[in-house]
Amino acid sequence: xxxxxxxxxxxxxxxxxxxxxxxxxxxxxxxxxxxxxxxxxxxxxxxxxxxxxxxxxxxxxxxxxxxxxxxxxxxxxxxxxxxxxxxxxxxxxxxxxxxxxxxxxxxxxxxxxxxxxxxxxxxxxxxxxxxxxxxxxxxxxxxxxxxxxxxxxxxxxxxxxxxxxxxxxxxxxxxxxxxxxxxxxxxxxxxxxxxxxxxxxxxxxxxxxxxxxxxxxxxxxxxxxxxxxxxxxxxxxxxxxxxxxxxxxxxxxxxxxxxxxxxxxxxxxxxxxxxxxxxxxxxxxxxxxxxxxxxxxxxxxxxxxxxxxxxxxxxxxxxxxxxxxxxxxxxxxxxxxxxxxxxxxxxxxxxxxxxxxxxxxxxxxxxxxxxxxxxxxxxxxxxxxxxxxxxxxxxxxxxxxxxxxxxxxxxxxxxxxxxxxxxxxxxxxxxxxxxxxxxxxxxxxxxxxxxxxxxxxxxxxxxxxxxxxxxxxxxxxxxxxxxxxxxxxxxxxxxxxxxxxxxxxxxxxxxxxxxxxxxxxxxxxxxxxxxxxxxxxxxxxxxxxxxxxxxx
Length: 552
Hints:
The chain has helices at residues 12-21, 28-42, 45-51, 59-80, 86-107, 113-120, 124-129, 133-150, 160-184, 186-195, 206-222, 292-299, 310-315, 319-326, 424-450, 486-489, 499-505, 509-516, 523-532, and strands spanning 25-26, 154-155, 235-236, 246-253, 280-286, 329-334, 347-350, 385-390, 456-463, 468-469, 475-476, 490-497, 520-521, 535-536. It is α/β, with parallel strands linked by helices.
């Protein structure tokens, strides 16, 4: 390695000249070890806080984890880096790791496959809200400076045969180092893995590299594969000639948690308009997952959380395909980043890029835009219809951008996506303002459905998942299911039925209100909607149909 001595009296030009001459020569293996050391020391603060909860009392476990982590990242980098692309490849890893650590430290998120899928499927408008000055400064310090040093490094060339032999020895030594780390404190390590197995999602960059591998494999297996049929025997019970066709507006909320839902007894009245309407509120509803990527496909699937199998859910048709097969006209109207495969090959409208001057600002549209021309003309269809409205809702961290100025009821509100710059009171105020706007949009939807004469109308609303607002240092959502807090898993759900719908279906609303006080979940959606349209199929489970016991 080259070295240049500096005299104590060296001038700044001399220092600059010396810095420019500094070109250390290292092997790829040494570079991998230096990078592993850097990641262990700078990119894993959340991991060390979670794994070493009792300070120096756990020094043996800390040493074991450090050695294990160093060996793991050395092994991964040894498999990923080769001399031709070692520097650009490592530069990419430094940038990605810096981004990952910023969001993990700022919001308390865990990087598992589901969270990474959320990131990869996020559209540019959502992503732009997260590009904050704080992220820029973090990137400059933890990626920019190391990349500047990295670009001064010269990598040693070796003959191919020798390079392969050295690399094999390096990988073997990293494996032995991992095993040695485990042996240092095996008892404590096995206890950590058994009792806090979720901490593995905090080991960075191994967490997102592993998740990327899983997602890449799953994506390659599912590309261009037609969805497998569900409910192939589905058929509708014919309507009596005296009855009108049914129209159900199914509103899928975003990031609204049950704890801040006024109808659930929240200390603030965040649902004043719905409180004046004859809605049936389900106050104990559990989400299928803590993110849209998990919950949306799950709630429209016959498997649900009770028989959760991600591969099955993503490879099979959804509730909407069953309804379409049975003769129900289906439309998905979206103010989000898509239907996550739920409406594949079905009618789809995106309003996210609409140009309504009252509801859109050129980047995003408020959820009121979903109600434009609701319900849309029936066209050639004269039968039953379902219209799914996918809301932007309380999508964070920019809660303040989810409602118009007239809905600034709770002040002061946090008006920046950098939640660390706001007090918890300000964050909750902005969040509750957004809930009040959701209340308004739902009340307006019901008002429109009341005026519809061509259909027996109904509305159902349920949120896809909840949100953490600083409890236990957590923000946003997407925690692994097994450790997700209730703030991310408990969601609001309600139903409204027009008087004519109630009369024509023999629905006993007092019975349904009694049922609404009992636990429910996303798993109830599939069979309940099939029941609304009297669809008979083997995948309809009467015990999960929330209306079944209350219909004459």
